[in-house]
Amino acid sequence: xxxxxxxxxxxxxxxxxxxxxxxxxxxxxxxxxxxxxxxxxxxxxxxxxxxxxxxxxxxxxxxxxxxxxxxxxxxxxxxxxxxxxxxxxxxxxxxxxxxxxxxxxxxxxxxxxxxxxxxxxxxxxxxxxxxxxxxxxxxxxxxxxxxxxxxxxxxxxxxxxxxxxxxxxxxxxxxxxxxxxxxxxxxxxxxxxxxxxxxxxxxxxxxxxxxxxxxxxxxxxxxxxxxxxxxxxxxxxxxxxxxxxxxxxxxxxxxxxxxxxxxxxxxxxxxxxxxxxxxxxxxxxxxxxxxxxxxx
Amino acid sequence: xxxxxxxxxxxxxxxxxxxxxxxxxxxxxxxxxxxxxxxxxxxxxxxxxxxxxxxxxxxxxxxxxxxxxxxxxxxxxxxxxxxxxxxxxxxxxxxxxxxxxxxxxxxxxxxxxxxxxxxxxxxxxxxxxxxxxxxxxxxxxxxxxxxxxxxxxxxxxxxxxxxxxxxxxxxxxxxxxxxxxxxxxxxxxxxxxxxxxxxxxxxxxxxxxxxxxxxxxxxxxxxxxxxxxxxxxxxxxxxxxxxxxxxxxxxxxxxxxxxxxxxxxxxxxxxxxxxxxxxxxxxxxxxxxxxxxxxxxxxxxxxxxxxxxxxxxxxxxxxxxxxxxxxxxxxxxxxxxxxxxxxxxxxxxxxxxxxxxxxxxxxxxxxxxxxxxxxxxxxxxxxxxxxxxxxxxxxxxxxxxxxxxxxxxxxxxxxxxxxxxxxxxxxxxxxxxxxxxxxxxxxxxxxxxxxxxxxxxxxxxxxx
Lengths: 296, 464
Known about the structure:
Strand order of the largest sheet of chain B: 3-4-5-6
Helix content of chain A: 55-70%
Structural class of chain A: mainly alpha
Strand content of chain A: under 5%
Mean pLDDT of chain A: 90
Strand order of the largest sheet of chain A: 1-2
Radius of gyration of chain A: 39 Å
Strand content of chain B: 5-15%
Mean pLDDT of chain B: 91
Number of helices of chain A: 7
Number of strands of chain B: 11
Low-confidence stretches of chain B: none
Number of helices of chain B: 10
Order of helices and strands of chain B: HEEHHHHEEEEEEEHEHEHHH
Number of strands of chain A: 4
Oligomer: heterodimer
Radius of gyration of chain B: 38 Å
């Protein structure tokens, strides 16, 4: 713009306008520094704020997945411990059955003692089968009750999968249903142990041998369940690592998009301060003098 | 040859003219910072030489006096028209940006307290419930987060409603101001015409006329044309609002009811002077911005927000009614809303935590798979909301950019006007000193002529 004639009014207007512009920029930088975000409203950068909102949501999802995975690991850990204990007790029962199999070498009293121990193992197994995680029986499926098996060894849980979402679209089943471990109704490991104890008491050698094989078969089923739980634990652990990584990567992506580069912004602030001081100085010099100071 | 006392008269005319020049300088200096003041200049002209030479009407050499040709207001009608046009656009854009920015800060996105944060928390609450469907606290948490989400949506709807109410009140005040200004301008026009006839200096009246016309342009984008008697005729949207000394009225035709209620679209109208009914006009300026915001921008946002609220509630309800609650009975609708105003009336419909349905199977089992399904059911609503917020952000950003660009243009025409019409103190100082010196010289001339006459009258013929 070519200036033909300059008036004091123009100078002061421009000085005020310039100071305002400088102050507005200072305020903008101050807002960024004090909020720690470069996007404080959607219009600051519509594209980046879309990304920021998506990233916030994704970070929330990833955190939730990690929490879900932690819960899943709790379930699987308790289940694993319970299965280990079941496996140990069944091995003991299997040993006892082998002892009892030597029918000729054992007195009726010894057989009775073994039978009693087998019954105790059975009761212990029912206790393990009712292991709880956060007030829920881990072998009870989706039952609302507090036990998976009653004292007689009958399944009282409710079939149904307990799943945990540990990633986008990735669901892992965390429970093992009682019958999958302890056998179907009517032929549970508890029934088998009772039958074995009965065979020992009556000295039924053939029955003891059958019972021995049955207990071994039950042990195989438990080992299978243990392997299954181990596989799932692996899957959940790797999903949790992925989710934790995602929290960090997405979080830093969010910082890149919506955060403030403190160093760069402070430098900006300093430069803007210099510009503001220059504008103040220029205004002070330009507004003050007039011809009056020089005419006498 | 001029008469004996001609030089006296010439000196006297100089004294008079320089006095006026000093007066003008003083009024310029006094008004150097008055808004709308246009600097004046006392124009001099030589008088004395006869314009029609004839036998007995001759002028000799020299002896011309000085006279005041008039006090000029240094302004340019075309530049003034340009200033009015740019200010009309500027105030349209500024008003629009101000409203949009207020709404945007009311939306509060992206942030930790807005609707999108509430959606994320709501999603988390369902996932936690999926993990522990037997936990009473998790159910309560779902209810609380659902209520927080409904509140956040409602709050945004109420904020929009309040903003529209404020804007309607503001627009009503502006419309009244336009009618008052039109009346003032008509009165000023009539004073100008009278001053022109009886030869009074109309400078102050003309300044006032320009100020009124500028304000009218800022409010309505009105255009003004100069009349032969010096006044302004003003029309808004092609309909005459002021014609000479008669003013029409500016009014709201429809869209704003009594007590600040109203429904879009808002229509403004002009009743021309002497006219019986208001003609609907489209305006620019601040009222134009308000009309646009009230008729288009904010209602569009509100209806989009309604759509998001509906989408959210329907998606959650569809899954929730397909699931079973803690007692094993089928779930009820989780959210309820009034179809006429979904965002403003969104609320959680169920009241007790046991009614939260998390199970996909009936019978009161502790299944959490339905909670997991529900947590994923409103992803689409979340996406719609983020699209809505960001398209609004784009609107605000582009309005802001337009206003900034226009500010440069407005600043330029203001500068050009100030170059022509602004008072320069240095210039006035120079004019003042020049007038002072000229005055002193004319006084000195008078003394000299007096002394010459004294010699002639009192000394001629004396030999002593």
